[in-house]
Amino acid sequence: MKKWDVIVVGAGPVGSYLSRRLGEKGCRVLLLDQKGRTGRQICAGVIGVEAFRRFSLSEESILYSVDSITMVSPSGKRLRHATKEPMAYVVDRVVFDRALLEEALDKGVEFANLSRVLGVERTARGMEVECRRLVNGGEVRSFEAPLVVLATGYAPGLLASLGLPVYPGAVVGIQTVNLMRGVDEIEVYLGRSVAPNGFAWLVPTGGGRVRAGLVVERDARLWLERFIRSSMVMPRVVENHGPVKATWIPKGPIPKTYRDGLLVVGEAAGQVKATTYGGVYYGLLCADHAVNTIEEAFRLGDFGEGALSGYQEAWLCEIGEELEMGARLREEAGRFTDGNLDRLFALLGSDGLLSRLRAAVRFDWHKDAIHFFVKHKLARAIFFEGRNVEKNIDNGSSGE
Ligand SMILES: Cc1cc2nc3c(=O)[nH]c(=O)nc-3n(C[C@H](O)[C@H](O)[C@H](O)COP(=O)(O)OP(=O)(O)OC[C@H]3O[C@@H](n4cnc5c(N)ncnc54)[C@H](O)[C@@H]3O)c2cc1C
């Protein structure tokens, strides 16, 4: 049997990037994926410029540059944030994912597609990965390595089978593609009447194509149909173009992302933004921490929990506070009424608050913007104290 140093499960952006980094370090890496063709079909594909710079991501995958975003309140109030330089890009996920995979293959990573991992077990010799080929009669094969990395995207079943704790909950992300006129920037729609405890989006990709989607906790198809048929969207639809696709997204990280011989990385670990559920950038950041830990484990020849625990400390140090603040905001936002949101939009649009907020907003990091709201008396009333909102607004409180 061929010897592997690391087996990576999942050739999404996170698994491919991590495999490439290990390949560069001389690791013998086997990368397994159940799909025949890489590239996630269901994704808004909005990835910040910071991620592109930090990870030298594929420019070929860019469909659209994002230099403005309009947020729309339940009653249709609009707030626009525009920048001189692009803040993000909209990518073709098939090209994007494929480029990362190609880079891994260039570094000697061996890739087996159509290979569904059924289970991972610790044996006396290390870790054993059992997988079924999804062609040729479904042959079941096993591979061994001292270390396995799960980068499968949302996978509660696989995590539970490994005795790992699962996510603190999940939302459904759903999306379709329409041909539309007059959508030339990202539009984000908020409110219970649009996407309860979530949000909806229109993301242009060029040539009149627009990704229309939303995240909600349940009844995603109904909410998407309603959103597309709404007066905010329908008048601009030229043609319903693509199929509707839906999938789960974890609401937050699993409490433990390592075990003897195993690390969990990317969306599989719930390393997604707590505010927008975007997972590509945070997954790549965490993959770097996984690579550092793996390198150290090989240096020590120790693949036990103790040696791998540094991974969790490192990624929590980089994104933990962001995830925690975002989760708290989301919890509070669950109590918002559409009236609260409309008042917040009115407040932001009225007293110069928006320009001050802009200084705190960064595309991939939302902690400072949340702090800003916490510190601002009136915004805090709207965000965090529900009923006090009306009292404060009626009192004509001027804020900070
Ligand atoms: C509607 C929607 C919109 C989104 N929009 C954005 C966005 O704009 N920006 C952003 O950053 N993120 C967005 N996301 C989230 C983003 O798509 C994910 O966070 C990202 O793809 C995670 O990357 P990953 O490599 O961890 O996992 P994935 O991209 O999910 O890749 C996992 C891979 O593992 C494979 N796999 C799974 N199970 C097995 C198994 N048992 N055996 C073998 N292979 C397996 C899969 O086939 C897949 O190729 C969106 C998600 C949804 C649902």
Structural notes for this entry:
The chain is α+β, with helices and mostly antiparallel strands and 400 residues long. The chain folds into 3 domains: 6-43 and 94-168 and 251-319, FAD/NAD(P)-binding domain, CATH 3.50.50; 170-249, D-Amino Acid Oxidase, Chain A, domain 2 (2-Layer Sandwich); 335-394, no CATH class. The protein has 12 helices and 20 strands. It has helices spanning 13-24, 49-55, 93-106, 156-161, 220-229, 280-300, 305-333, 338-350, 353-360, 367-375, 377-384, 388-394; strands at residues 6-9, 29-32, 46-48, 62-66, 68-72, 78-82, 88-91, 110-112, 115-123, 126-133, 140-145, 147-150, 170-180, 186-189, 199-206, 209-216, 237-240, 245-250, 258-259, 262-264. The strands form 4 sheets. Strands 5, 6, 13, 14, 15, 16, 17 and 18 form an 8-stranded mixed beta sheet that branches. A 6-stranded mixed beta sheet has the order 8-2-1-12-20-19. Helix 1 (13-24) links the parallel strand 1 (6-9) and strand 2 (29-32). Helix 8 (338-350) packs antiparallel against helix 11 and helix 11 (377-384) packs antiparallel against helix 12 (388-394). 42% of the residues are buried. It binds flavin-adenine dinucleotide. Residues 9-15, 32-35, 40, 42-47, 116-117, 151-153, 155, 158, 173, 175, 213, 247, 249, 266-268, 272, 278-281, 283 line the site of flavin-adenine dinucleotide (FAD).
